[in-house]
Amino acid sequence: MQPAYASPTAGSAVDTPPPHDASPQRAAAAIAHRRARTLALGPCMRLQFEDHETIRHQVETILRAERLGHDPLAARHERAAYAHLLPDGTSWNATLFIELPDAAERARELPQLNEAVHELGLAWPGHVRVMACANADLPDRHRQRPSAVHFLRFAFTAAQRAALRQLAAADSPTLVCTHPAYPFAARIAPPLLVHLQRDLAPAAWT
């Protein structure tokens, strides 16, 4: 499932370098950055918390795979498709992957896991749990056709953002799934918390 196409808002552009800039060193750095922003939830869910670098890497990968690196219209199209996943300083946005390599298991488990995606929330001391808004750009299609890829947004109030920016590693939020078919929780590790706190830093969005 690919993001619904939408026009990027001001300040949301993903600058994509030409294909000759995709050196092995740059590719390795991009992969390391993606891994640093990844959180595993239980045995078969993985969240990739997105930022400008992860989205730029995704767009570059698609353009190279489809041999469209020199097509400015294709580049603009892909940038627009992923613009809604870019952080804006008020939320954490993530791509969630349901990883079930066995076809029979996937056919059996995916419908329930698609429902579980809608019962994910972030909990940390002293605050109400923040539930994920899943697949906001696909309100009617994703439940009828189970998918292994979902798009999540955790939107925070101003008070919650201030609290998260000051949160100590010992109080790092926990991602919780309350669906009975997938009762798992995963604490955000301190290195990932540092990345996510930067996403909420006012200086980064002025």
Number of helical regions: 6
Q: How confident overall, as mean pLDDT? A: 83
> Which term fits the overall shape?
globular
Distance between the termini: 32 Å
Count of DSSP strands: 9
The run of helices and strands is HEEHHEHEEEEHEEH
Which secondary-structure class do the elements indicate? Answer: alpha+beta
Helix content range of the residues, please? 25-40%
Largest sheet: 5 strands, antiparallel
Integer-rounded radius of gyration? 17 Å
**Strand proportion:** 15-25%
Low-confidence stretches: 1-13, 16-20
Going across the major beta sheet, what is the strand order? 1-2-3-7-6
Task: Explain how this protein is built.
With 206 residues, this protein is of the alpha+beta class. It has helices at residues 24-36, 52-65, 72-82, 103-116, 158-165, 190-199, and strands at 38-41, 45-49, 91-98, 120-123, 130-131, 133-134, 149-155, 174-177, 185-187. Strands 1-2-3-7-6 form a five-stranded antiparallel sheet. Strands 5-4-8-9 form a four-stranded antiparallel sheet, with no helix packed on it. Strand 1 (38-41) and strand 2 (45-49) form a beta hairpin. The protein is globular. It starts with 23 loop residues before the first helix and ends in a 7-residue tail after the last helix.
